[in-house]
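Hi everyone,

Forwarding the result from last night's run.
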Amino acid sequence: LKARLPARQTQRLQHAVLDAGRFVRPPEPSIDVKALRAATWDEATIAFRYEDAKGVVSHRQVDPLSIMFMQNAHMLVAWCHLRQDFRSFRLDRMAELSLTGSSFRPRRVPMLRDFVARLRSDAIERAEDRR
């Protein structure tokens, strides 16, 4: 960023009051993230083995919607066929990623909008409960 700024603004950036830093490295994904990105972009249903925080293993088929950084880890936001609902999966807890051969095109964008709207609604509701 500094290299692209004029010298005067570089000085300001160097002494900025606000800074964003990460002190803990996120866990390394245990799957091929490039393949996951391609499946998300291609709107291809995937299957994988998932181990939750308690160590419980399940096999999932999902429609991948987006990869996001949330809660200090990279997460896959997806429509889960098992739960018939939106779910988030930590990439470092996923294994044995494969394509199922099914497509959910052209539903990815509307599904992602629905998921984001639900997140917003839940956040507003939690904020109102704290008042």
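The chain has three helices and five strands.

Cheers,
N.
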